[in-house]
Amino acid sequence: MTHGDGLTLLIEQYLDAAPRIGADVEQVGPFSLFVGRGPWDYYARPRLGLATAVDADDVRRLIARQHEIDVPTEIEWQPALTPSLAGACEAAGMIVHRFTLMVHGGPVSPWPSEVTMTAPGEDVGPALSAQQRGFGAASTLDPATVENLRDRIEAGTTRVAVARRDGRVVSVGMHQPVAAVSEVVGVATVAEHRRTGWGTRVTQALVRDAHDRGASTVFLSAAGDAEVRVYEGAGFRRVGDVAAAEAGR
Fold it and tell me: What confidence tens digit (pLDDT) does each residue in 62-90 have?
């Protein structure tokens, strides 16, 4: 396990590399703007290795380019590496959100018997539908999103864990490996099965799968205290913050 500043840089390298699997990249001033090649929307990040402060004019130029090519007005970053960006975003009229950055600290749990990994060619519809319900969205599926996830599972760039009870999907999560690092994303449990440990089991399975496939660092970001507690129960520890900015309302 990497610690301290080395961990921050390792995660930053991952966060620059992972979107490139599904997006093209434009350099807009101090930012790398990721433009999706499929149905997934992306965002901008500070250019890898950026060593200068960012100001509101830099952010405004980025926003203008995002509007020009009709992509979401979003920026993500690690405040520890780009401390000037939050103020610059706010000065440019954006809303800044902060999340807790967490890294798995081991030991890796045994495989939860109720959880399986989605195999290439397997129907991903029930998992995606349950995930959308878990996040409070309609369960109707977009065919392009389904196809994109199938392709990513086939390529090994997304791994999907599914928990079932009485044959029905109750919780879903993913991890996205790049070399020896993977990020856990999209863990969601349908409303009627929350607070019963399903999210923890899915997360434990994702960590187990990531380590079995060679990942030595597994991380995630948590939106609130309740999520932090769930992930602490799955062996994660707080190591810092990540931030995201979106267009002001």
Answer: 999 999 999 999 999 999 999 999 999 99
Tokens of 144: 């392009």
Report in angstroms the alpha-carbon separations of 95 from 83, 91, 92, 98, 135.
16, 10, 9, 10, 21
Helices 198-212 & 225-233, crossing angle to 10 degrees? 60
Q: How far apart are CA 65 and CA 80, in angstroms?
A: 26
Residue tagged 């070399």 (tokens): 179
N-to-C CA span, the chain: 41
H or E element at residue 219: strand 217-222
Residue keyed to tokens 């994660």: 236
> Is the pTM above the cut of 0.90?
yes
CB atoms within 10 A of CB 229: 11
Say how many residues make up the chain. 249
